[in-house]
Design brief:
Layout (H helix, E strand, L loop, with lengths): L11 H15 L6 H8 L3 H4 L7 H13 L9 H18 L4 H6 L4 H16 L5 H23 L22 H20 L1
Helix pairs in contact: 1-2, 4-7, 5-7, 5-8, 7-8, 8-9
Length: about 200
């Protein structure tokens, strides 16, 4: 008889990974502490050891996870801004199940630090009012991804309430969505350049 494998230790990272899987495959409304505990093969109360505020802390952690983006500085502020916007879009599209959290929760923790880092990069590259530019870029990226998710039909229930939601297609979207995003991004950056 083979030896029984020891359980994988519970960690904040493992909790977030499992929560993202549930939200992306079934929708955020199906993410409960009980369902999360079942996915992790632990009692739901064990999660509170890593997230003492419970579901509120979990929602904050998920929003922070998908909005903490880093991009290497480019040769110009425009290059840096493009890299940041593309990385932000990719992170949000990877986890559409928590897009609503990204749209409604202000940046906290690592996400707030990443926003400050981006602001500093743009300011150091010569962009006047970099903080305003970052707010505009975040609004553009979040809105563009929200439209993509809406158009994909991902958020449409597959049937009755007992059926899981259809997951989005992974590995990039349509060429039209990519083209639309780049067109809007170019227009935004041109506007910021002239502001």
């Amino acid at each position: 008889m083979p030896a029984k494998r020891p359980p994988i230790p519970l960690s904040r990272e493992r909790i977030i990974e499992a929560a993202l899987h549930i939200a992306d495959s079934q929708g955020l409304r199906r993410l409960t502490m009980r369902r999360l505990g079942d996915a992790l093969q632990v009692e739901a109360m064990a999660i509170y050891h890593h997230l003492p505020r419970g579901k509120d802390a979990l929602m904050d952690a998920l929003a922070e996870h998908v909005t903490t983006v880093h991009a290497e500085p480019g040769e110009s502020w425009q290059d840096s801004a493009r890299a940041w916007c593309r990385a932000s879009r990719a992170a949000l599209r990877e986890h559409p199940g928590v897009l609503a959290l990204a749209l409604t929760k202000p940046p906290k923790g690592r996400a707030a630090i990443a926003v400050r880092e981006q602001t500093d990069q743009l300011a150091d590259a010569g962009l006047a009012d970099a903080a305003r530019a970052v707010r505009a870029m975040r609004a553009y990226v979040f809105g563009a991804v929200a439209v993509e998710v809406q158009q994909s039909g991902w958020a449409e229930p597959a049937g009755d309430d007992d059926e899981p939601w259809r997951p989005p297609s992974r590995g990039g979207g349509s060429a039209a969505a990519d083209d639309d995003f780049e067109l809007g991004l170019s227009a935004l950056l041109a506007g910021l350049d002239g502001a």
